[in-house]
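Expect chain and fold; thus:
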Amino acid sequence: MLKIENFEVLGWEHAIRGMRNPKNSWDRSDSEWSWIEDDSPINPSDAGLSLVIGPNDHKLLMSLADGGPVHAKYRRMITVYLDITAPLYWWKEFDTYKVGTVANSCSTMHKIHAKEFTLEDFSHEQLMCGNADPDIRRSYTIVPEHDGVTCLWSTTHVLNTIINALNVNRKAYLETNDKRYWWQMIQLLPTSYNQKRTVMLNYEVLANIYKWRRNHKLDEWHTFCDWIEELPYSELITGYKEEQE
């Protein structure tokens, strides 16, 4: 599971002006501020005065983007802010992108005990439940044996068992303030736990992510790349040119 909220894209005017510095071609710039009655092409959440990129500037933006990061330096100046909620196993991969990114996360160390754990706190859409087809169930379940009795446990059941254990130790920690119970939560917490972070990055970072993660095994990367494709002038990131009307 991956959810994106509260995104904003900034820096277009500065990026375009800087893009034309090398050849002093500012007089050819045709982007302008216009009053947009509907959602803005730059910041979809806003309506009002917005920068609309003209055909001359768009052509140069695309040409430089086609030349790669060395030529498309303007992409580093187009800044994106967003809130991402995603499982820890996805954040481990996202954290490989260190250059050009800043993030503030909800703290697991300080707030792991702040609320009772529920199934909705975890990404579990791919887990098998006990009501699955018997053949699939046999393939995807843990089959422990105790006293000669075989018990089928679905993977959803396993997660619920862990959640129960987390809540038992949470309750004990709140009642006693004994750090031993805090450690049980920290070391037992699965990587499917969803964490929210507010992130700042730029179009160059997104271009790198899109190139290498578009066909990744994790569904969360597919969701993220789908969101990239919906960004203003996303062709500067993806390289896909808009169809001519």
Q: What stands out?
A: The CA atoms of residues 1 and 123 lie 5 Å apart. The radius of gyration is 24 Å.
